[in-house]
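Lab meeting, item 3. Inverse folding demo.
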């Protein structure tokens, strides 16, 4: 998703990754991970260093879910191998709102791949829960991601497991420092990213209490034992990088709502408004954001930009836009409404398999 693709070195770009090929070969266990670039530089991205295809740092951090901006369940990674896969079932491109949905419901569990189990065995490391691998019981992980005009990224996570687990939403900055900030309420957390590019803030909301850990340590230390060099032939210094993890209480069903602001000037204060139809109601700049944070109730997300004359809705609830109510034609769909040439342009999507899955009969 791009603010200005022709001038990516001067604008905001965001990416959502979820691969049906899983995480084998040169892939990483990073289904539903996001990356955010600003002015051509990575603000949020993967962390860790490459010394070898499968040394200890590679298998326990660099290649693992702990290195990426995605979800841990009870501090456990997604599985490495083709079996740990995700996919992008939906996407909509608009002028002021861009949207993608990633599904990583099949990414978690014990490693089954003989190839990767052999790699662990070669370095005498067990892919145990102590090392961040194992069965977490995740049955649903769908991440809705929107890029809004004005420098805003919105994430809405639907999470379910067989039993209550502690859910952790991760944020990693490979080149910049994260600083935690005090939150007004126990069910929200916030931090800033210190950059030379502008101002970056992140606010995370949930229905129940959250705890945040900010640190600059890898799960497994990065050591340049292989003397990897940079483009100038100098041996790389494997410096520590910054990470934030925001964790829930044990819940079988859970939702995170995240609002990231990346701006040249000051970021906006996020205002809490009165709930509408039991949805959490926030305002940031021109945008109103409404979300169902109760995991036991039907998921819903709405984003409305009055000045932008654009609106988005996911779920079963109707959306009021430009004085008229719009109900989804298909239950659980994602709908984008925008004024174009003085008319309302409506796009409605549901999950759709890629052409390769629909038509390839081999």
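The presenter then showed the designed sequence:
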């Amino acid at each position: 998703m791009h603010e200005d693709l022709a001038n990516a070195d001067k604008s905001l770009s965001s990416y959502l990754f979820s691969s049906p090929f899983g995480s084998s070969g040169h892939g990483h266990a990073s289904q539903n991970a996001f990356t955010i670039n600003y002015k051509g530089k990575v603000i949020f991205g993967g962390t860790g260093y490459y010394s070898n295809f499968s040394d200890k740092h590679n298998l326990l951090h660099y290649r693992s879910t702990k290195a990426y901006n995605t979800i841990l369940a009870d501090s456990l990674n997604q599985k490495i191998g083709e079996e740990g896969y995700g996919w992008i079932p939906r996407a909509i491109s608009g002028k002021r709102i861009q949207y993608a949905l990633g599904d990583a419901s099949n990414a978690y569990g014990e490693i089954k791949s003989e190839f990767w189990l052999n790699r662990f065995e070669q370095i005498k490391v067990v892919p145990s829960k102590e090392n961040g691998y194992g069965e977490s019981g995740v049955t649903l992980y769908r991440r809705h991601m929107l890029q809004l005009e004005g420098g805003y990224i919105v994430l809405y996570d639907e999470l379910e497991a067989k039993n209550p687990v502690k859910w952790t939403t991760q944020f990693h900055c490979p080149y910049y420092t994260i600083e935690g900030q005090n939150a007004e309420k126990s069910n929200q957390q916030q931090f800033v990213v210190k950059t030379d590019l502008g101002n970056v803030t992140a606010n995370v909301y949930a229905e129940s209490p959250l705890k945040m850990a900010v640190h600059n340590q890898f799960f497994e230390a990065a050591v340049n034992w292989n003397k990897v060099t940079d483009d100038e032939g100098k041996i790389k210094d494997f410096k520590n990088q910054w990470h934030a993890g925001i964790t829930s209480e044990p819940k079988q069903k859970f939702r995170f709502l995240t609002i990231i602001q990346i701006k040249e000037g000051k970021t906006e204060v996020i205002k809490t408004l009165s709930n509408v139809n039991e949805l959490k109601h926030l305002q940031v700049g021109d945008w109103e954001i409404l979300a169902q944070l109760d995991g036991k109730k039907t998921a819903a997300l709405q984003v409305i930009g009055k000045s932008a004359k654009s609106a988005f809705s996911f779920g079963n609830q109707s959306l009021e836009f430009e004085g008229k109510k719009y109900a989804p034609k298909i239950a659980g769909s994602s709908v984008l409404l925008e004024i174009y040439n003085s008319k309302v342009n409506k796009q409605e999507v549901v999950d759709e398999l890629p052409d390769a899955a629909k038509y390839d009969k081999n």
